[in-house]
Specification:
Elements: H1 3-24, E1 40-43, E2 46-49, E3 54-60, E4 63-68, H2 74-83, E5 91-92, E6 97-100, H3 106-143, H4 149-182
Antiparallel strand pairs: 1-2, 3-4, 4-6, 5-6
Helix pairs in contact: 1-3, 1-4, 3-4
Length: about 180
């Protein structure tokens, strides 16, 4: 495999991983610890990721329990969750924070579905741009004589197969996320 192909594949992998990470932050009707991946808590003057200052568990499909390692952080964690874009309402008993995940409305499901489709399309465009960059690189190598025409054609075909494969992965991730958004 040519270096251009492997570099392109690495970029395509990152694109799909980024899409899946983005999908993880969508609040669906189901509880998930990954909802809190982007939430940062003021921990003695430093902004720390929530999962580094507390244990996040999902005891039931619609309940999340956050247990801070330092009980003094309960107020800060609650404030961080309330001010996030998740629209969740935490409650605490002095030891743990409980967050009930309400079911999604039909309108919210449609919004999330549209958002997921949009992110998937951006990822498909990114993969196609990576293919274009790879093809341009191969053409440069052909002009400088580092590649023969046959090698350039084989590598271009290989790049197209990679592109098709990663676009299929993006479509699969979108399909799974839409299914998750639709179910309750």
């Amino acid at each position: 495999m040519h270096a251009v192909i492997s570099a392109s594949e690495e970029r395509m992998k990152k694109t799909v991983a980024s899409l899946k990470e983005g999908f993880g932050s969508f609040r669906t009707g189901r509880a998930s610890a990954s909802l809190f991946d982007k939430i940062k808590v003021d921990y003695y003057g430093n902004k720390s990721p929530l999962n580094q200052v507390a244990n996040i568990s999902v005891p039931e499909a619609r309940l999340i329990v956050i247990q801070p390692w330092d009980k003094g952080l309960i107020g800060e964690i609650e404030k961080a969750v309330r001010s996030s874009e998740l629209s969740l309402n935490p409650s605490n008993d002095g030891k743990v924070i409980r967050i009930s995940i309400p079911p999604l409305t039909g309108e919210r499901r449609n919004e999330l579905s549209k958002l997921a489709k949009n992110q998937a399309e951006q990822s498909r465009v990114a993969v196609r741009n990576i293919r274009r960059d790879g093809n341009e690189e191969l053409k440069k190598l052909l002009k400088t004589g580092e590649l023969t025409e046959d090698d350039e054609r084989v590598n271009t075909d290989e790049l197209q197969k990679l592109t098709d494969s990663y676009i299929a992965k993006i479509n699969q991730a979108l399909e799974e996320k839409e299914k998750e958004i639709r179910e309750d």
